[in-house]
Write a structure and sequence with these properties.
7 strands; single chain; alpha/beta; five-stranded parallel beta sheet
Length: 235
């Protein structure tokens, strides 16, 4: 009997696995002010974008010149903000329906490796997932983050290489799947040369995800377990 093909799942975080209930934007503003001294009442569009881009565009919105060390300082301040407000994030936010069940179900399959592909900086990604106790099913050391590259499609190869280095398996188009909620996740999969399962659990509609090029679109993660066989037969 043939052994199952080893596969790599790359999870998006925000609006795919969790919602912060508004804590995320507040933490961003607080960290931005700590680093730049500028109080802000708005920030650049965040949907599907890496934190480097969001931070740089917010600097531009306020005419702030970056001396070169603002973003690393911001990353530290942002993670500290999430850590300090973990209880509040749990009260106001949530793990999205089906997220915990899907992660746990995939974790039971020895041929499946799960990590993240996210625009979040790594420290903040860890704090968000830990707040909702979702980190236990993910190998976050092999994930690809907004601190690795500002261009989301470039994160695919980074995660694949880290997974290869850790586990000794080569993950390619048919053995790598992104699960995310935005057209940027779809674009990352298409340009990164991997599969995509899109989930309309965020601000992007089912039709918009299909129009972006996704072949599989689910209303939310509660529908994912019924279609887990697609990860073995092709998405």
């Amino acid at each position: 009997m043939a052994l199952p093909v080893r596969k790599l799942i790359l999870w998006d975080i925000d609006h795919t696995l969790i919602e912060t209930g508004g804590v995320g934007s507040e933490v961003f503003r607080d960290a931005f002010e700590q680093v730049t001294g500028q109080k802000i009442n708005q920030m650049a569009d965040v949907t599907g974008r890496t934190e480097q881009v969001i931070f740089a565009e917010t600097l531009h919105m306020y005419g702030i010149e970056d001396p070169g060390d603002y973003f690393p300082k911001f990353v530290e301040a942002q993670a500290a903000g999430y850590r300090a407000r973990a209880d509040e994030m749990r009260r106001r936010g949530r793990a999205l329906p089906g997220a915990r069940e899907a992660l746990a179900a995939f974790a039971e399959l020895p041929h499946i490796t799960q990590t993240v592909l996210t625009g979040n900086p790594k420290p903040s990604a860890i704090e968000k997932l830990r707040a909702f106790d979702l980190d236990q099913w993910l190998d976050l050391d092999i994930g690809a983050y907004g601190t690795d590259d500002s261009v989301r499609p470039n994160l695919v190869a980074i995660a694949q290489q880290r997974a290869h280095d850790r586990y000794g398996h080569t993950y390619k188009r048919d053995t790598t799947v992104i699960i995310g909620d935005t057209t940027s996740d779809v674009e990352a999969a298409l340009k990164g040369g991997v599969q995509i399962i899109a989930v309309a659990s965020g601000r992007t509609t089912v039709d918009q995800l299909y129009e972006a090029g996704a072949r599989t679109v689910l209303p939310d993660l509660t529908a994912l377990r019924a279609r887990m066989h697609e990860l073995d037969s092709g998405v």
